[in-house]
Amino acid sequence: MEEWRELGIRLEDFIRPATFPVAIRFLQRGEEPPERARRPSEETGCSIALCQGLTLTRERGLTMLFELEESSCPLANAALGWDTTTGPSFMAAFLLTMNYARDDDAAAKRVQGMAMLEADTYPKLVMSPLARTRVEPHLVLVYGNPAQIMRLVHATSRWTGERVPADFGGIAGSCNEGVVRTFASATPRVALPGNGDRVFATTHDDELIFAFPAAWAERIMEGLEATSARGIRYPIPTFINYHLPFGDLMQKFT
Asked: Using an 8 Å Cβ cutoff, are 208 and 146 in contact?
């Protein structure tokens, strides 16, 4: 566990995120959650959406435990395999009702493009701030501005030689594109926070998500270190070695 906490500290040093990177672990049936993991109802007095839990973890530093009874978002519950009654047909109906899809065909295509875990495989999920994590993560989510996310893309593509995947749908950004798809694909990716992330979980206008599987952690850290050694860093070291022609401007207008 300690090596993950140290990695979280190193990651924060390189990226300087405004909020904690989040460690995510899926719990199989019978697997016990860590001590002092808080259920949403204990912290807020009610069930909440997964994206709201991510905000509690990355802003307050809380370790949160989610399962169906504590999770209020049907889209996330369907994607996580927690609620088989809110499957593809429910998702399609939601897209049509909210005008995210213009017709049945568009709704069906959008649903087919969403990531889904097998039902009842992982009945619980724990999220914890990486630098003080209480779980061995399956994946990590980092919220940041475009320049910070760029640095994580640099670190990843250094190893793959390829562009980093990013499938933007504008909805279910953190739960589906960030958590479920990254876990299912075992590939680092950029996710676009959806409207729900912004309305209900207070995700800021300038924030993107970079998600990576635990198996990628050391490669990403190596990529950050290697590129940083060449001056590719965050905060961005801007070039300011030039003369401002104030005197010339004054002469021009006098």
From this structure: yes
Domain ranges for the chain: 2-235
Query: What pTM, to 2 d.p., does this model score?
Result: 0.94
The span from the CA of 226 to the CA of 232, in Å, is 9
What percentage of the chain exceeds 70 in pLDDT?
A: 100
Q: How many angstroms separate the most distant Cα atoms in the chain? A: 81
Tokens of residue 213, six digits: 């599987």
> Cα–Cα distance between 225 and 219 in angstroms, integer?
10
First to last CA, the chain: 68
Main-chain phi, psi angles of 62, to 5 degrees = -90, 145
**Type of residue at 157:** S
Q: How many CB atoms neighbour CB 215 within 10 A?
A: 11
Q: What is the DSSP string of 39-105?
A: PHHHHHSS-B-HHHHHHHHHHH---EEEEGGGB--HHHHHHTTS-TTSSHHHHHHHHHHTTSSSSHH
What are the backbone angles phi and psi of residue 212, rounded to the nearest 5°? -140, 145
Q: Which of 180, 234, 174 is nearest to 202 (CA)?
A: 174
For the segment 160-190, what is each residue's pLDDT rounded down to a tens digit?
999 999 989 999 999 999 999 999 999 999 9
Count of C-beta atoms within a 10 Å radius of residue 112: 11
Residue 59 to residue 8: CA distance in whole angstroms: 15
In angstroms, rounded to a whole number, what is the distance separating the alpha carbons of residues 228 and 81?
Answer: 40
What residue ranges of the chain have pLDDT lower than 70?
A: none
What tokens does 215 get? 């198996």
Q: Position of tokens 């808080």?
A: 38
- Structure tokens, 37: 């993991």
Q: What is the pLDDT of residue 86?
A: 76
